[in-house]
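Input record, target 12 of the design panel.
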């Protein structure tokens, strides 16, 4: 099925903020998040003709965005020995508020402050709605590791939010 540029532009306008929020949560960096958004929509443009309609277009696009974010985060982690660089949580919170008005900014800051592995799993499970088995498969780790990271993250979030 061939899609027009106008249809794609409409798709972009309807879903840009959501894809940006996904990317921003993973990277905590607006510039890197925009790179992921570009990557995700390039993937969507290239793959749209083969979209078979077995799921809603928005569900499929969401999956493409999560995969693009995970691919970028993983590639960067391989390139850099250490990823826990300082993050400007105020800038991050302002960007989340812009992308997702009404978001709980205290919770967003607390999630952003989690260690990388735990943060990714919390985003995938609690924000994006993936099951533990699905997260394990996507990240290439054991399901038990996912569950222990979730347990650890919940404890850290409780401490931070208290």
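The sequence produced for target 12 reads:
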């Amino acid at each position: 099925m061939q899609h027009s540029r106008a249809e794609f532009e409409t798709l972009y306008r309807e879903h840009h903020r959501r894809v940006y929020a996904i990317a921003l949560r993973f990277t905590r960096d607006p510039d890197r998040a925009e790179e992921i958004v570009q990557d995700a929509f390039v993937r969507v443009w290239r793959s749209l003709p083969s979209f078979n309609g077995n799921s809603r277009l928005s569900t499929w696009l969401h999956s493409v965005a999560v995969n693009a974010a995970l691919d970028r985060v993983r590639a960067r982690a391989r390139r850099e020995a250490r990823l826990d660089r300082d993050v400007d949580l105020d800038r991050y919170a302002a960007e989340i508020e812009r992308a997702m008005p009404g978001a709980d900014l205290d919770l967003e800051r607390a999630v952003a402050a989690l260690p990388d592995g735990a943060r990714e799993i919390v985003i995938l499970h609690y924000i994006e709605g993936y099951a533990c088995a699905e997260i394990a498969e996507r990240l290439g780790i054991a399901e038990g590791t996912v569950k222990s990271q979730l347990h650890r993250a919940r404890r850290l979030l409780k401490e931070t939010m208290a």
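The longest helix spans residues 5-27.
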